[in-house]
Specification:
With about 575 residues, the chain is α+β, with helices and mostly antiparallel strands. The protein is built from 13 helices and twelve strands. A seven-stranded antiparallel beta sheet has the order 9-8-7-6-12-11-10, with helices on one face. The protein has a five-stranded antiparallel beta sheet with strand order 1-2-5-3-4. It holds the Pfam family ERM_helical.
Amino acid sequence: MQYETCSIGRETHHCIILQLFWGLVKWKGKDLFDLVCRTLGLRETWFFGLRYDIKDTVAWLKMEKKVLDQEVPKEEPITLHFLAKFYPENAEEELVQDITQHLFFLQVKKKILEEEIHCPPEASVLLASYAVHAKYGDYDPSVHNPGFLAEEDLLPKRVINLYQMTAEMWEERITACYAEHRGRTRDEAEMEYLKIAQDLDMYGVNYFLIRNKKGTDLLLGVDALGLHIYEPDNRLTPKCSFPWNEIRNISYSDKEFTIKPLDKKTNVFKFNSSRLRVNKLILQLCIGNHDLFMRRRRVDSLEVQQMKAQAREERARKQVERQRLQREKQLREEAERARDELERRLMQLQDEAHMANEALLRSEQTADLLAEKAQIAEEEAKLLAQKAAEAETEMQRIKVTAIRGQEERRLMEQKMLEAEMLALKMAEESERRAKEAEQLKQDLQEAKESERRAKHKLLEITSRAVYTSPGLPPDSMPPDLSFSRENLSFDFKDTDMKRLSMEIEKEKVEYMEKSKHLQEQLNELKTEIESLKLKERETPLDIIHNKNTDDSLHLAPGPFFSEFLLSWTPLEEGDR
């Protein structure tokens, strides 16, 4: 025989799988069952049994018969499942041993996850939180980081598919409930799990397909409280129930099963099952559940009383031990908190000392900087005072200069007005001189024309005199000719022409010098007052005047005198 203990530890399977090999021993079912119970340290043996699979149903190993004489599978090795066969009405009151409680917890949890027991979504989340507490103990946020339940199978697939929620969202809700269970032991968490699960409608119920006399398909449910009849599609709400205390007799004949109520006035309920083996199983479960039902309502046996006393002592011892551990844990946590507080205070003092040193250094540096800044500020104050004095002086100078500038501008405007008057007078003088020059030019032209005619006449006379009397002396010329020469000499004296030319040249030079001096004076006045001019106040006439002035700078000294110079050409020496 080889067996595997799969439910002793906290993380193991919910049952024990036993593998028997042919030819080893001829044990009865009770011998094998007792071996398993002794191995587990289980004393509440009346809840459990060894189950095996046979064709399309299951069967429980009979205690009084040999294992190999029963309908166990004939292949090697033989596999048997150690499971809870009967369920308690109140797990908290009936389950005494921790191992019994743990085995029930594992089996019920498996049935809920495999949806053999229907569980609402909200109850599934709460049961999952207790299952997590039973495995991990108290919630510790520093240890149980987000994602620590990623590999855990905690909810039925039906519940997960019922909502549009991610695994992280489910974990968040389970963890929120898990955190509220702080302070419970793992055994207490398992018991809370069973207390919630035992209120589920399908908890501890074994279902069998039956048919009544009319041939209607029904379901028979067998549990710790009695027999229940269900619709095939509704395993939650029974159509009728027969409590164990109201049943007088249960029997079967071949495939027909009969339930006789205690009240003889009540009709006998008969139904047919699919096969005889099913009827045997139903009867076996009915007898076991009925015996436990009656046993619960009697005084506990001496063995049970001893077990409960030992359990109470063990729980009291564990409670004392847990309280001691709790106090030690609390003292350790307080010591750790005190140590952490001291370390934190030490770090804080070190930081404060470091900050004080840095502040001292900064204050020293700041004092040096402030002293330097004070010196700089004092120098700047002196400099600003000096600049203020200079600015005051400059302001006074500017005021004086402004007053002087206004006076000078007034004088300049007066000089400019005088210069313009002088220019006007000179222009009139120039015009007058131009007229005189024009008159002299006309006189000069007339003189040239007279001289030309005189020369021509003289040449004619001379030519005739030479051709008529070439041998005559000059004295022998006629008197009228001599008179004509005198007349010519009177009309064309060189001294008059030279004098006229010199006067004209002198007047030309004098006018040029006067015009140049006047132009320089006007330019100087314009330059001096130009910086004081307000352009925006210029009138259209001022703008035209400025333009004309700019254009006149490119011409000769005066318009009239320039025309006179262009028209005047001095006589050559031969012309005179």
